[in-house]
Design goal:
- The complex is a heterotrimer of chains A (about 325), B (about 325) and C (about 500).
- Chain A is an all-alpha fold.
- Helices cover about 75% and strands about 0% of the residues of chain A.
- Chain A has a domain of about 230 residues.
- Chain A contains 15 helices and two strands.
- Chain C has about 500 residues and is an alpha/beta fold.
- Chain C is about 35% helix and about 25% strand.
- Chain C contains 18 helices and 20 strands.
- Chain C has a six-stranded mixed beta sheet with strand order 6-7-8-3-9-10, with helices on both faces. A six-stranded mixed beta sheet of chain C has the order 16-17-18-13-19-20, with helices on both faces.
- The longest helix of chain C is centred in the middle third of the chain and has 16 residues.
- Chain C is globular, with a radius of gyration of 25 Å.
- The N and C termini of chain C lie far apart (about 50 Å).
- Classes of the chains: A mainly alpha (about 325), B mainly alpha (about 325), C alpha/beta (about 500).
- At the A-B interface, α7, α13 and α15 of A face α6, α12 and α14 of B.
Chain lengths: ~325, ~325, ~500
């Protein structure tokens, strides 16, 4: 009989403090705290509760999309069309508003359109077996193209009177509605990913689609629904975004595809699929949000934020590899 | 060019595409004969030459199974940088401008290459990040200001639009570079190695192909191409601003995909990519002539990409193995 | 051994190799002689593939030395090994489907013209020459993807020969070949022998070993056991050397009484892969499926499992109609499928043991949509105990377990669904003799417990030993079904090859 091959001895006992410390989520938490401390020191306006809650508005809509994008990425897919989807939903919503629909109808319409767009992606990807990256590159152009066709150079600003409540309204005059909706959704997505069969199967096929298929998981069906869900979140986010900025422009939400992917990856979700936690993603959302807020407080222009996010994205995916290479290099030095 | 390379260089697919492009030309000219007028043709050919260069540059990383979404952002940065230099030193000789453009492109490409080749990070995510970084850097350079036609030095603008045998220098430059790419991909070891890397990475490693060096080479080449095209673009349109070539990521990928380059790597021809670029350029230039607003461009590109990848995918997928022989009477003398 | 030149062309002496804490090779010797075929035998984990990787320059040894024609050498990579004339033909083809045959042959060592450009004309003619030498009519411009598995093997051999090699290593070359193709391969090996090459032939099939090897070397547990001439030993001797004990009952056929029909398949077909398939599987029966490569066995099984296409016929499971729309409803009906490629299709290595074992059953255990941790732990503990899986606990990642224990997790996953029918596709392919016996006795256990087994296999002795009946497929149709009493190797092979037979008994 072949000898029992003993696995690598565990250097860190499970559940020890050190193991907890080295987790991605803990590092994120520390970074979040650090950013808050730095922000508080550099500006007296930071710790004001009104300002803090207001700042959540700049990322609440994006964050809704991040929740569903997390599921897409864990499933080894990617969706580059989210920004364009938002623009298209807003455009069609604005067109409907011109025809006198009420706020609640507009919200529903936006969600429906986003859902349809997402399922369009899902259908082409699963039915025709085309890689997600190139399909969503195509729809990214198609969706925003539709927005441009309808709007041209103009903007829609005609919306019903209470439409602005969605994105600009507060609970108790303090907490923005968008933020509350986001928090509620975050809880739901957490449960979905970590406590349901759906989440379990998602991790399975994100790691090994073949094994999952042979275990009875209908992989293509899941993928289709996750792209559809992503679209739904885009529709929802679009309604809130439009309401907050007060208008529909064809170039709205520009750059959101990169930023949402960055937030997911920064949250510790592997771009190769199969691993990640919702807690990590939530922390990452707040890290980015507080960072943006802080930079804004010291008057750094928005475009700088894009550059920062670009670096963060690359840094987030590079760091595990760099750490692995460094420790391998150090081990070789020690052996030599 | 012997029979085997000719067969490799073209294929049934390319022929069909060539026919489609020809048919397209015929249809449009019938509808609007002005399309084939000297002025219109000149624009068509020059636009085509630019897109062809960028598409061929994009083809190289796609062959290895990667992608470079940062080429247009590279162009924007290099274009703005050289424009600002020209503004400050109007008499700077063209050769120097070109060298500087190439140098900047080289650095930007190498930046991509380090993360993709040496750290092994996924090209799509890395270039998604560098796309934002480069474009943000344009803003940092220019502070949002534009460089207008009158700001440029004369040599800067004159060279690319100078003529040789009736065609602009851009067309000749493009022809030379595309021909060089053709020789590289079909008749040089490093070029063939790209196909191997994309087609079967583990087999490529087995036969000793160094994927790190090759990938670094590729991203440097796309960087150089981006740099050169950045200068040519800005000089051609005599304007430099932050949004140079915005959205061209899609066009380059679209040209490749329409031309039959497989997004997963290992397959693609130069003639195919050229035809793909021709296809797109003809459609874009035809739109205003047949009275379709240019705002339709984005949506059309998106739809064309989707159609192309769906068709590609159906062609790529092997048909189910035909095991049964036709026309045999079943002789099931079986004991159940 | 050539009496005039006893120096081995290539020689491993006292080679050691360690990976982390695991010693893969602990001082082995291997000598390859010109014009001789050396068979390398050993169980899985004996160190054969490590030795091959050292010979081809993929690994460097930690100790011992490599001698080429008596001179010590060191191979820093595959290119180095090629330069010394060492080439290999592997089990999985390491070639490029999109490229032509000629390009595949010269990949990594292109012929160039002056000026650095590739010389396709010369490469094409050299490729044609190599193909002619191997008596193949494959044209050099053909894209590789248009070739069959056997033809791809030939191209691999051509590639090995294109290096002007003195040593050709063949790693399980007959694994995916039909009987005729194996004969063709033997011819090629004899041809290479005649050319004076030294050949290292690795195979689990004793048929191969005794058909063409001149000498043998046996490894066991990373150690060298012995070497000698094939004519001096028989199969039992070799088995004893490989396993360290004699394996008496290779195919322990359980003696069970067959029960009522469990699965009935009638006139099943799709347009392209199989047609008019009818058979009945009884309780506690082991039903074997035999056929040549490409006969449609796996396609049929995958269709039964809900992953293929069925356009005609019907299936009844315990007298209820079954429509295999997807694996999920087939699993719910009580049929499970253990595919050929276990690593890829079996266990999900980065996930925990608990996740893997409960994967197909998660819905059954759950509270509505929510996971039921306690029930899952119970199921996991149950399986781990029943199959004696060596692990630290249910949360350990399956990837950290040994190969054998990973297999147990895969089997455990399926047993947990309490199936009625287990379809095994090539369950002992590429497995050494010791583990084979373990798999066979496990099948016997399953059957004793009341399950039915469908066993697809290309190894006739195994099927004849284990099965109650054998269904022979040929080009997508059933050629014959034989009862145990009728088992006859020649008749079965003839049926599988489509040769006309006198009417079945």
């Amino acid at each position: 009989m072949s000898p029992v091959v003993s696995p690598m001895p565990r250097r860190v006992a499970r559940g020890s403090f050190w193991a907890l410390f080295k987790r991605w989520e803990t590092i994120l938490l520390l970074i979040l705290v650090a950013i808050c401390v730095i922000n508080a020191r550099s500006s007296p306006y930071f710790l004001n509760p009104h300002n803090l809650f207001d700042s959540t508005q700049s990322f609440s809509e994006k964050a809704m999309i991040v929740l569903s994008m997390t599921l897409v990425i864990i499933g080894r897919d990617i969706d580059l069309s989210v920004a364009s989807n938002v623009a298209m939903c807003s455009t069609l919503m604005g067109w409907l508003a011109l025809h006198g629909l009420s706020t609640s109808s507009l919200l529903i319409a936006s969600v429906l359109i986003g859902t349809l767009a997402g399922s369009f992606n899902g259908m082409i990807i699963t039915r025709f077996k085309v890689p997600a990256i190139v399909v969503t590159i195509g729809t990214l152009s198609l969706f925003r193209g539709i927005a441009y066709i309808v709007l041209g150079d103009h903007a829609f600003t005609t919306y019903p009177a209470n439409f602005w409540e969605l994105g600009q309204g507060y609970l108790f005059g303090l907490i923005p509605y968008e933020f509350l909706v986001f928090l509620g959704l975050a809880v739901l997505f957490y449960l979905l990913l970590h406590r349901t069969i759906i989440g379990r199967n998602l991790f399975a096929y994100g790691n090994n689609p073949d094994a999952a298929l042979y275990s009875g998981i209908q992989v293509d069906s899941y993928r289709f629904w996750f792209f559809t869900l992503n679209g739904t979140m885009c529709g929802l986010a679009s309604a809130f975004l439009t309401s907050r900025i007060g208008a529909t422009r064809p170039n709205m939400a520009l750059g959101w595809d990169m930023e949402s992917i960055a937030m997911v990856v920064l949250g510790g979700v592997s771009i190769m699929g199969g691993s990640g936690t919702m807690i990590g993603v939530l922390l990452s959302v707040f890290v980015m949000g507080m960072l943006t807020f802080g930079l804004g407080l010291v008057n750094i222009p928005g475009i700088m934020m894009t550059v920062v996010v670009g670096f963060l994205l690359i840094g987030a995916i590079a760091s595990p590899i760099v750490i692995k290479k460094l420790s391998a290099w150090r081990r070789e030095r020690a052996r030599a | 060019m012997n029979r085997m390379t000719f067969k490799k260089a073209t294929s049934n697919r390319d022929l069909v595409l060539g026919l489609i492009v020809a048919a397209l030309l015929v249809i449009i000219t019938l509808r609007a004969p002005v399309f084939l007028s000297a002025g219109s043709l000149d624009t068509l050919v020059t636009d085509g030459a630019l897109l062809a260069m960028m598409a061929v540059a994009q083809m190289l990383p796609i062959l290895t199974g990667g992608i470079d979404l940062s080429i247009p952002a590279n162009m924007a940065f290099t274009g703005m940088a050289t424009a600002l230099l020209s503004k400050a030193h109007p008499t700077m000789p063209v050769l120097l401008t070109v060298l500087i453009a190439l140098a900047i492109g080289l650095v930007l490409g190498a930046f991509n290459g380090v993360f993709i080749a040496y750290l092994g990070l996924p090209p799509m995510v890395v270039t998604l990040g560098t796309m934002s970084i480069f474009r943000g850097a344009v803003f940092l350079l220019s502070h949002g200001a534009w460089v207008n036609a009158q700001d440029f030095g004369a040599p800067y603008l004159a060279f690319p639009m100078g003529r040789l045998l009736g065609l602009t220098h851009i067309v000749w430059i493009s022809a030379v570079l595309v021909a060089a790419a053709y020789v590289f991909l079909n008749h040089m070891k490093k070029g063939r190695e790209l196909y191997a890397l994309g087609g079967n990475p583990s087999a490529a490693q087995y036969v000793g192909i160094n994927d790190t060096h090759n990938k670094m080479l590729i991203y440097i080449i796309t960087g150089l191409a981006g740099g050169l095209c950045g200068y040519l673009w800005v000089a051609r349109y005599a304007i430099a601003y932050t949004e140079i070539a915005l959205g061209f990521e899609l066009q380059t990928v679209a040209a490749c995909v329409i031309g039959g380059v497989s997004i997963t790597g290992g397959r693609g021809t130069i003639p195919g990519t050229l035809l793909g670029a021709a296809f797109l350029v003809i459609i874009y230039n035809a739109l205003p002539i047949v009275n379709i607003s240019p705002f339709w461009q984005m949506a059309i590109s998106g739809a064309v990409v989707l159609a192309a990848v769906i068709l590609n995918s159906r062609g790529e997928r092997s048909q189910g193995k035909v095991i049964l022989e036709r026309g045999r009477v079943s002789t099931s003398k079986v004991a159940l | 051994m050539d009496p005039t030149d006893p120096t081995p062309v290539l020689s491993l002496q006292g080679i050691r190799k360690q990976f982390g804490g695991i010693q893969a090779l602990g001082g082995v010797d291997l000598n390859l002689y010109s014009g001789q075929v050396m068979g390398l035998l050993g169980e899985n984990g004996a160190g054969k593939s490590t030795a091959v990787k050292i010979l081809t320059g993929i690994y460097q040894p930690d100790g011992g030395r490599i001698l080429a024609a008596g001179q010590p050498v060191s191979f820093k990579g595959t290119q180095d090994a090629w330069k010394h004339g060492v080439t290999a033909v592997h089990q999985e083809t390491v070639m490029f489907d999109e490229l032509s045959v000629a390009e595949n042959i010269f990949s990594g060592h292109f012929i160039r013209r002056r000026g650095g450009l590739l010389d396709w004309a010369t490469m094409r003619s050299r490729a044609a020459q190599l193909m002619a030498d191997l008596e193949s009519d494959i044209r050099p411009e053909t894209p590789l993807k248009q070739l069959s598995v056997a033809q791809k093997h030939i191209v691999e051999i051509a590639r090995a020969l294109s290096h002007d090699s003195s040593v050709v290593i063949m790693d399980e070359p007959t694994a995916a070949l039909s009987v005729h193709e194996i004969e063709d391969l033997y011819k090629i090996v004899r041809h290479l022998k005649a050319l004076g090459k030294a050949i290292l032939f690795i195979s689990h099939k004793f048929d191969d070993i005794f058909a063409i090897c001149d000498r043998y070397t046996v490894f066991r547990d990373g150690g060298y056991v012995g070497t000698g001439a094939i004519q001096d030993v028989n199969q039992d001797d070799l088995v004893r050397m490989m396993v360290g004990r004699s394996v008496t009952r290779m195919f322990p056929k359980a003696d069970v009484e067959l029960g009522e029909p469990v699965l009935e398949v009638r006139a099943l077909g799709n347009e392209t892969e199989f047609d008019d398939i009818s058979f009945t599987l009884h309780k506690r029966e082991v039903l074997g499926f035999y056929g040549l490569v490409g006969a449609g066995r796996t396609e049929l099984m995958e269709a039964l499992f809900g992953l293929g296409r069925i356009t005609r016929g019907d299936i009844r499971m315990r007298n209820q109609p079954l429509c295999p729309a997807s694996p999920r409803n087939v699993i719910e009906a009580g049929i499970v499928y253990v595919p050929e490629d276990r690593q890829r299709n079996g266990a999900i290595l980065p996930l925990s043991i608990q996740h893997n074992i409960t994967l197909p059953s998660v819905r059954k255990l759950a509270h509505g949509p929510f996971l039921n941790d306690r029930a899952e732990l119970r199921m996991t503990a149950n399986i781990v105990q029943r199959l004696s899986v060596k692990c630290f606990g249910p949360n350990q990642k399956v990837g950290e377990l040994s190969g054998g224990n990973q297999q147990k997790v895969v089997i455990g996953k399926w047993l947990a669904t309490q199936p009625l029918v287990v379809i095994l596709d090539e369950p002992t392919k590429g497995i050494d003799i010791g583990s084979k016996a373990a798999v066979h006795s496990f099948i016997g256990e399953l059957v004793t417990e009341g399950l039915s087994v469908v066993m697809v296999s290309s190894e006739l002795p195994e099927l004849m030993g284990m099965a109650d009946r054998i269904v022979v497929l040929h080009k997508g149709r059933i050629a014959r079904i034989l009862e145990r009493a009728q088992f006859d190797a020649e008749a079965i092979v003839a049926a599988a090859s489509g040769l006309a037979e006198s009417c079945p008994a």
